[in-house]
Design goal:
664 residues; alpha+beta; five-stranded mixed β-sheet; 31 strands; elongated; disordered N terminus
Length: 664
């Protein structure tokens, strides 16, 4: 009869538990409990693979000599892994600090002289619900009152126990059980252990991608990690590659995503859709299609995740499951009530300033901010080839640049003297960064004094505007960019302050906008850092920053509108990517990679008004996670794709500036 210890019994160990002592055992009366799965061999350990729903094992009890009579078969559970319990013959298991051991099942066995076989379902022996006390426990004999208080496991209790076991596997990867037989006389068998869960696969990787854009005459097909269901009708299009030695692959689609790790990869209750697909040839990529009808029936806004799992011939993991691809059911467009009057907006990308990727050589590019010290004035003049006045750029390499040795040898002594001087005055870059940070922090209160406004109001509005423009993304340039975006900043401030009257707004825009421009001119990077000792500061053009997009928005009337009517344009959503080709691989088409992105809200506009806004873009997520691929793409770009509010066009390569980038 299978029995389960009630939860209230497993609480805390008694102060003096009746622990069996090895010296009290009567040798030879009880030899071993062995374990095997239905097709395995007998042994002291067995692993049951959760993904195959392999739960049952056979226990073989081998009595020593002519042992007979009653004995207690006890099953212990250990957790959380990786607990390594000590299983000494005849004693209760002991666990390391923080480990837990508990009896989850005991059964009375009638021994005879011959070996005994018992079939057991180990997935039923789940961890107890509720608090899990940390105690080493003690062996329970059939004569103990605790055993007599055990209740038979009902079907509902068994299912609850199984659910709890699966929950522990999800959290830890496996559940470990140990089995021992004891008799009232003190004899005890060796331990048999069963681990139930999923073993860690080899660290092979797979990549699954879904098609984002179909191919056109001008625009090659684009693959990525997310797509809208229904983009290609009733079919989902995928491709995948792997370095795992797989012979088959399972595609899984689940609502909301998959748990981290691999322990529950084959849980059929979670998957909405699953299908086996072909494995790509070594080093290659395989494409496949899946029907989308089942997913399209989900409510608008539902998100699914798809991944691919490489498998061996035995349906075991050949490698780790791929990262998930995000599939979403398009949300229905919200139908807001039409305003009494409305404006139309023309939003355009009209200019681009390239990003600068960091390289070690950046540290040797300087610009004259003040008057260089007398000791290095002539040296800087010799290196720059002109009078070292503010704005003159100076390149001070520690060794001759390739293909320019003649130039370097000509000015080597001058460069050496400047570098020596810079070493003596400390870290010039840190001085410059510190000055910029201090000026930016003080800006709201300077502007408040200049415009006659409360400092707290200005700080809140300025923080919102600077955050929307991502000015901190171009650290040394942000004071200059603030002036170039003065109209945008002032418009956001006016909206925050609720200034709608045309005359009052015009007065505010003039006064506060003038204050922003004046402050920016007075605190430009070169003016702010002019006091750095030596007169040289890091060249901001050689400081790492993403690309800067210039977006223009114009407001037009769609019909009759009241005087002074204002409306905010929809936020601009920009994505910039490139097609890059590996010239060393002949016949391989250029591949698309996303590089930059930005979303910027606008202040309200009236009919005829327009804004020219500098937006420091943000790096695409792949900038950190796929650094090698990202850098290769930007350095080997052949064509750039700019997408603004869902409309794409091709422009000058992302490495080159173009358009209107100087402000109004």
């Amino acid at each position: 009869m299978l029995m389960l210890l009630p939860p209230q019994v497993v609480s805390a160990a008694p102060k003096n538990p009746p622990v069996l002592q090895t010296s009290a055992l009567k040798a030879g009366l009880l030899d071993a409990v062995e374990v095997k799965s239905e097709k395995g061999a007998w042994g002291s350990e067995r692993f049951l693979r959760w993904s195959e729903n392999d739960r049952k094992v056979l226990l073989r009890i081998k009595p020593g000599g002519s042992s007979s009579g009653k004995a207690a078969l006890s099953v212990w559970a250990f957790g959380p892994p990786p607990t390594a319990p000590t299983l000494g013959k005849g004693s209760a298991p002991t666990t390391p600090p923080g480990g837990k051991a508990r009896i989850v099942h005991t059964e009375e066995i009638q021994l005879g002289g011959a070996p005994l076989e018992i079939s057991m379902d180990f997935a039923s022996f789940a961890p107890s619900q509720g608090p899990k006390p940390s105690w080493s426990g003690y062996a329970v004999l059939s004569s103990d009152p605790v055993v007599r208080s055990l209740q038979q496991i009902a079907a509902a209790q068994r299912q609850q126990a199984l659910d709890a076991a699966l929950a522990e596997i999800r959290a830890t990867g496996s559940v470990t059980y140990a089995v021992q037989l004891t008799t009232g006389s003190g004899a005890a068998s060796t331990w048999a252990t069963v681990r139930y869960g999923e073993p860690a696969p080899a660290p092979f990787r797979s990549l699954l991608e879904t098609k984002i854009h179909a191919a056109t005459a001008e625009f090659p097909e684009v693959w990525g990690s997310s797509a809208s269901i229904g983009e290609f009708g009733n079919t989902l299009l995928f491709r995948w590659k792997t370095d795992a030695p797989a012979v088959k692959a399972l595609v899984q689609i689940a609502k909301d995503g998959f748990p981290d790790g691999f322990a529950t990869w084959n849980d059929p209750t979670r998957d909405v859709q699953r299908q086996f697909v072909d494995v790509p040839a070594k080093g290659g990529t395989a494409s496949f299609q899946l029907p989308a009808a089942k997913l399209q029936g989900a409510p608008a806004g539902t998100v699914f995740a798809a991944r691919i799992v490489p498998l061996t011939a035995e349906n075991n993991l050949a490698g780790l499951p791929s990262p998930a691809v995000r599939l979403s059911v398009p949300a229905a467009a919200a139908k807001a009530p039409a305003p009494a009057a409305s404006l139309a907006f023309e939003i355009e990308l009209v200019g681009w300033e390239p990003a600068h990727l960091p390289i070690p050589d950046d540290a040797y590019h300087y610009v004259v901010a003040g008057t260089p010290d007398k000791g290095i004035y002539e040296s800087v003049k010799k290196v720059a080839g002109q009078e070292p006045k503010s704005g003159v750029k100076v390149y001070l390499p520690p060794k001759p640049p390739e293909k320019e040795k003649a130039w370097y040898e000509k000015v080597a002594s001058a460069i050496a003297s400047v570098l020596h001087f810079l070493d003596t005055v400390g870290n010039v870059a840190q001085q410059a960064f510190g000055i910029v940070e201090g000026k930016v922090a003080k800006a709201p209160f300077d502007l408040a004094d200049m415009a006659g406004l409360p400092g707290s109001k200005v700080k809140g509005g300025l923080d919102k505007a600077a955050g929307a423009l991502n000015l901190a993304g171009a650290k040394l340039q942000q004071m200059d960019l603030l002036g170039r975006g003065a109209d945008y900043v002032t418009g956001r401030m006016a909206d925050d302050l609720g200034i709608q009257d045309p005359a009052a707004r015009a007065a505010f825009m003039g006064k506060f906008g003038g204050a922003v421009r004046t402050w920016s001119q007075q605190n430009s990077y070169l003016k702010a850092t002019a006091g750095v000792q030596g007169g040289l500061v890091p060249d901001p053009d050689f400081q790492a920053h993403p690309g800067i997009a210039w977006i223009r928005v114009r407001a037009k009337a769609t019909g009759a509108v009241p005087a002074g009517f204002r409306q905010a344009p929809p936020a601009a959503s920009l994505k910039v990517g490139v097609f890059a080709r590996n010239a060393e691989l002949l016949g391989i088409p250029a591949e698309y990679r996303d590089l930059f992105q930005a979303t910027v809200p606008f202040p309200t506009l009236a009919v005829g008004e327009e804004l020219l806004v500098p937006v420091v873009t943000q790096y695409h997520w792949s900038h950190e996670q796929q650094a090698g691929t990202w850098n290769f793409a930007i350095n080997h770009a052949e064509k750039t794709r700019y997408e603004l509010n869902g409309k794409a066009f091709f422009g000058t390569t992302v490495n080159s500036p173009w358009g209107q980038t100087g402000g109004k």
